[in-house]
Amino acid sequence: MLDRKTIRKTARKSLKKHYWFFVAVCLLAAILGTEYVDTLQIVRIQKKVNEYKSDRAPALGVSSNAGEMSVFNDLINGDLDGAISSVQHRIDVYGGEDTYIGDLELGHSNGVLASVINSVASGQLLMTILTATDTMIAVHNVKGIILTLLGLAALILFWLFVGNVYRAAYARVFLEGRIYEKVPFSRFSYLFRLKKYFKASLSMAVFSLMQYLWMATIVLYPVKRYGYLLVPYLVAENPDLSPVEAIRLSVRMMKGHKWEAFCLELSLLPWKLLSIATGGLAGFLFYNPYRESVLAEYHANIRALALAQKVEGTARLTDRYLFELPSAKTLAGAYPDAVNTAAALQKEYEPRKGFWGFLEKYLGVVATYDTKEKDYREIQILELKKEEYRDTLAGKTYPVRLYPVPAEEKRKKTDDVGYMRHYTIPSIILLFFLICVFGWVWEVVLHLLQTGEFVNRGTLYGPWLPIYGGGCAAILVLLYKLRKKPRVEFLMIIVVCGIIEYFSSWILEVTHDGQRWWDYSGYYLNLSGRICAEGLLVFGIGGAAFIYVLAPWVDNLILRIRSSVLWTVCIVLIAVFAVDVVYSSFVPHTGEGITSSPELPDKTNIQDVPTQN
Prior knowledge:
Layout: H1 4-17, H2 19-32, H3 57-60, H4 68-76, H5 80-95, E1 100-101, E2 104-105, H6 115-121, H7 125-139, H8 142-179, H9 190-193, H10 197-215, H11 221-227, H12 231-237, H13 243-253, H14 258-266, H15 269-277, H16 281-308, H17 328-334, H18 338-344, H19 354-363, E3 365-366, H20 371-393, H21 407-410, E4 423-424, H22 425-451, H23 466-478, H24 486-511, E5 526-527, E6 531-532, H25 533-558, H26 563-586
Parallel strand pairs: 3-4
Antiparallel strand pairs: 1-2, 2-5, 5-6
């Protein structure tokens, strides 16, 4: 029997080392719907008591003087939704009216952040499929059925390749955090770097599917849940495991430890209750990252026991330095070129002068990808390598060269995806349009699944939402000088995106006789209905991912295209976009689902979604 107190104590030390990073990791898991979705209740609390359905209240034991016991009873009975509803009802009863400070609304929320995504990715996939089926029956036409199926397919793919795989990715982060002082943001891309992303996604998909199937048995689910507990950590250590291998190995390793794991989780119940009682705030700030730290520590202990007992299949667990620090001699042998890299940095870069020198220095913008820019990027890559080598040789970060993968794969690392780069004008233009189109597809798919109707969302007639692309282009250029400070960059992304969204809403309203294309009234911490805390949080996380991962990767692809072709494509896109802007200024793009919210059908687990920009 493992010592629960020791596990929790060690987990707290790990959490203390990486507190804000771990909080952010778990928050992103909640946003993606991977785990801890109930944490987002802090920005979703409804103010209308009838949201809880008066006919449901007696069954939940909810009344105007509902107490702590109703929440506790719901938890004991396994009714987490009931517990959350009880807390929400109590907050409504005792909280009174919404509170305002000027135009800033501090009260309750209609927040629906990733409501459909959450229903897909947080253990409710079958319910979402049922809802989509209901939509298809309701529309009574082939076009509606096809569009709904396409929308559902898009969300399932998102769950399969993003939300689901993220579970294994952040398991890796927590495992590294046990041993090492630093866990770089780039660790989230390790499955790509190892070329194991699709294999890991398959393993995690089978893992989730098996959980759903066992859930249907009710009685056997708790046993299987703890039997499969280690699967994400096993995939995080060795993504080359097949789905069957990962599941069977977890079952073997957990044999005789299921009750122990249950008791360990039960010991965290007070923190879970506090999380629910605070509408998810305590979960966001402590319970979620603490629980993950505990589970990572528990996995490490179970793994050590399994290896000592030579449990069948543990020979595949070969990532030794994920669980112990390498010696200085081992590190020196793996990084013999560290000295050469430091020496190569003696090469100096001569900045441009004049107008282009100003753009390069303060905005990170250059005209073309010329020889001078190639030299600059080479130096920046060496700078990043130097920093990585320094932390690795000091034993502060995981030594990626000691990862047990074939040597030829290690040499194919995407080291050229450096975020401290200059962007050419064609790259910025194409990135703008790419994100505009992505935003349009995102909005259309969500609306399609919720209403069964295809609506061309946005302020323009073309398949693009300029506020998405404009926001990304703005933070890419305006925040160039802050890229080496990720925390400051994240906060400034929120500020810049908030300013852009607020004034975009105001300008559209003023120039179109009070017409609004989005309205966050009723959302927690909203300002005049133009911006809200929930949306800004998504902008912050999405913007950081764009700057540090997506933009450099796409830029590398863009630079493979001949310059003449790039400029031709850019000019055509700008011309078509300009025509759309001019036409839309005379004939505004309005209507149901664009500037007004349609009446949604009464569907289980689907909430009202406000019109987006």
